[in-house]
Design goal:
By secondary structure, the protein is mainly α. Helix content is 74%, strand content 0%. The longest helix is centred in the N-terminal third of the chain and has 54 residues, at 87-140.
């Protein structure tokens, strides 16, 4: 359960995004994150950040999405057995099937098609995701749910320790260092994600959506990590390829018709991610690369056309590269996060310093991001520091931020940066923002209370101390939410 930090810390981060970042984005009327970079620094920094986004999508996000989807689909449908091909060939076939289908409606449907399909796929994925642990419990209990639940909790209590140790894949200490920064980048500045917020018709609607997303994220461990522990108990702990456990669990515990439903939901989730990133890549290229270098004033239709051509090229490249991820030495998710370190926190650092300071000059941003990426590359490829890569990201974040701040003091911009209100959308905040955010944070902290040495990780299950702790957390979050709401109302008046 220690890896649940990747999921539940997102709840806190999404509350921060809804409260602090989205109002600023919508007030400025930006459509892409590099738009803010240009407004705050200059075109050169904007081009640099755009390039990092695009390289990240082509090298990492899109191939990872296709590969993970291919693994799931090939295992659920037994592609190798049906067609008499090898595992590698099965992955190759499914990568191209998923990639072609996803590219067609991402490129020709645009962001609206992505939004509509996401809404449908999201419901199906939550329902399908809940079916897996439900039927796994029934499988463990031989049809008796309560007996299965009791057996599941008692069988491997050590697996329920979310605090874990320093040797875990995700040490608990990273929640307060690089993990927080990575999530802030992903939810607050990654174009493929935040574009959903940037497209909101008002600040109120955008904040509702983000808080709702935070609620879903703090509950994700029940859809993903708990089934992993169930897979360990049902399938055994000697599976050579950890990436295969989830689809094999689905095939084992779900009845045939539900396997089909779940496969459809899984395919929808895969396409959702693939389409969003591909649409984001096309948008960034058309608006931030092609338009600036074109000598003429192009109509929107021409920009859309060039974006589609670029999206097609990116889709083909990602399909070619996806297969080779199966040869990555570590697990799929660890590989994804380690490679992301070249792009995520460096970009967030620039955005963070852009909002925090008013006179840090553009060349400080260029020096900072170059230093960050180069040093991170050295620590990951050539110099083993013995530190978790998330701790390294946090250290580089502090050093880079301090360096940019010092440069800003030595040679500041002549004119301070001021956020301009474009008045394009209604920026009246959602009245239940703090109450909704407080509830999300309450659930997140409660998860760590339940999955700790005090809770399910203790042999015998939860006790009265655990329940009292959860109640106290709820009271503190409720009081804090009300105080923040009152403070905000007084400040508005």
């Amino acid at each position: 359960m220690s890896v649940m930090g990747w999921e539940v810390i997102s709840g806190v981060v999404l509350v921060l995004v809804a409260t602090l970042l989205l109002p600023r984005y919508l007030r400025q009327g930006i459509t892409t994150i590099p738009d803010f970079i240009e407004a705050r620094f200059d075109k050169g920094t904007k081009q640099f950040v755009t390039l990092l986004f695009l390289v990240s999508y082509v090298v990492n996000m899109l191939p990872i999405t296709l590969y993970s989807g291919a693994v799931a689909m090939s295992q659920i449908f037994s592609i190798e057995e049906i067609f008499g091909i090898t595992y590698a060939q099965g992955i190759w076939v499914m990568v191209w099937v998923i990639g072609i289908v996803g590219a067609i409606y991402a490129i020709f449907g645009g962001l609206k098609a992505v939004a509509v399909s996401d809404s449908i796929n999201g419901v199906a994925l939550v329902v399908g995701g809940l079916l897996v642990p439900l039927f796994s419990i029934l499988y463990i209990g031989s049809g008796n749910f309560m007996e299965g639940l009791s057996t599941f909790v008692a069988a491997t209590p050590e697996k329920f320790n979310a605090i874990g140790s320093s040797t875990d894949d995700l040490p608990f200490t990273t929640l307060f260092t690089g993990l927080l920064l990575v999530n802030l980048y992903y939810w607050g500045t990654d174009q493929s994600i935040i574009q959903r917020g940037l497209g909101a018709k008002s600040l109120e609607e955008g904040q509702k959506g983000i808080i709702y997303a935070g609620f879903l994220k703090v509950g994700t461990p029940f859809l993903v990590i708990i089934p992993g522990i169930m897979g360990y108990q049902i399938l055994g702990g000697d599976i050579s390829n950890a990436d295969m456990i989830y689809p094999e669990l689905v095939s084992t515990v779900l009845p045939g018709p539900l396997v089909g439903f779940f496969a459809a939901a899984m395919m929808g989730a895969i396409l959702s991610t693939f389409n969003s990133v591909l649409n984001s890549a096309s948008t960034l290229f058309a608006l931030n690369v092609y338009k600036p270098i074109s000598s003429k004033d192009l109509p929107d239709s021409e920009l859309v056309k060039k974006g589609k051509i670029f999206g097609t090229i990116v889709a083909v490249l990602s399909m070619i590269g996806a297969r080779f991820i199966m040869y990555a030495p570590q697990g799929l998710f660890d590989y994804l996060q380690t490679i992301n370190g070249f792009f995520n926190v460096p970009i967030f650092t620039i955005v963070f310093m852009g909002y925090l300071t008013k006179r840090v000059p553009p060349f400080a941003a260029k020096i900072g991001i170059t230093f960050f990426v180069t040093t991170y590359e050295i620590t990951q490829l050539f110099w083993d520091t013995g530190l978790h890569f998330l701790h390294i990201s946090a250290i580089l974040f502090v050093i880079t931020s301090l360096g940019m701040y010092i440069i800003g003091k030595i040679k500041p911009m002549e004119e301070p940066f001021i956020i301009e209100d474009k008045e394009l959308v209604d920026i009246k905040p959602w009245k239940n923002l703090y109450r909704g955010g407080g509830f999300v944070i309450f659930v997140m902290i409660s998860m760590y209370v339940v999955f700790s040495p005090l809770g399910l990780a203790k042999e015998g299950g939860m006790n009265s101390v655990t329940l009292i702790s959860i109640i106290l957390v709820g009271v503190v979050c409720a009081i804090g939410s009300l105080l923040l709401e009152k403070f905000n109302l007084e400040r508005t008046k």
